Amino acid sequence: MKAITYTASAFVLAGHTLDAQDCPGYTASQVTQNGHGFAADLTIAGANCQAFGNDIADLALEVGYQTKERLNVRIYPKDIAPANSSWFILPPHLVDQPEWDGKTTANSSDLKFEWSNDPTFQFRVLRASNNEELFSTYGHVIVYEDQFLELVTNMVEDYSIYGLAENIHDFRLGNNYTQTFYAVDAGNSIDRNVYGVIPFYQETRYHNGLDTTSHGVYARNAHGQEWLMRENTITYRTLGGSFDLYFLSGQSGNGGSSALTTIAQFQTGCIGTPAMQMYWTFGFHQARWGYENISINQAVVEGYRDANIPLECFWNDLDIYDLYRDFTNNNVTFPLPEFTQWIEELHANGQHYVPIIDSNIYVSNPNNASDTYAPYENGKNLQTFIRDPTTGDFYFGDNWPGFSVWGDWLIPSTQEWWTNEIVTWYKGTPFDGIWIDLSEAASFCAGSCGNGRLTENPIHPPFLLPGDPLTFDFNYPEGFNISNATEAASAAAASASQSSALSASPILPAATTTTQGRTEPTPGVRNLNYPPYVINNVQAGHALGKSSIEPNATHNDQYNTTEYEMHNLFGLQISNATYHALLEVFPGRRPFTVGRSVFAGSGKTTSHWGGDNTSTWGSMFLSISQAFTMMMSGIPMFGADTCGFARNTDYQLCSRWMELSAFFPFYRNHNVKATIGQEAYRWSSVAESSRRAMAVRYSMLTYMYTLFYYAHTKGETVMRALAWEFPSDSTLRETFNQFLLGPSILVTPVLVPNADTVQGVFPGIGEGERWYDWYTLAEVKAQPHENVTMSAPLEHINVHVRGGSILALQQPKLTTRDTRNTPYSLLVALDDNGQAKGSLYLDDGESLEPNATRLVQFSYSDNCLEFSSEGQYHASQPLSNITITGLAGSVNSTGCYPRRNGGWAHHGGPQHSSMHYGGKNCDTGGFQTSYSNGVLKVSGMDKYTKDGAFQENLKLCFEW
Question: Active-site positions?
Answer without folding.
Answer: 437, 440, 612
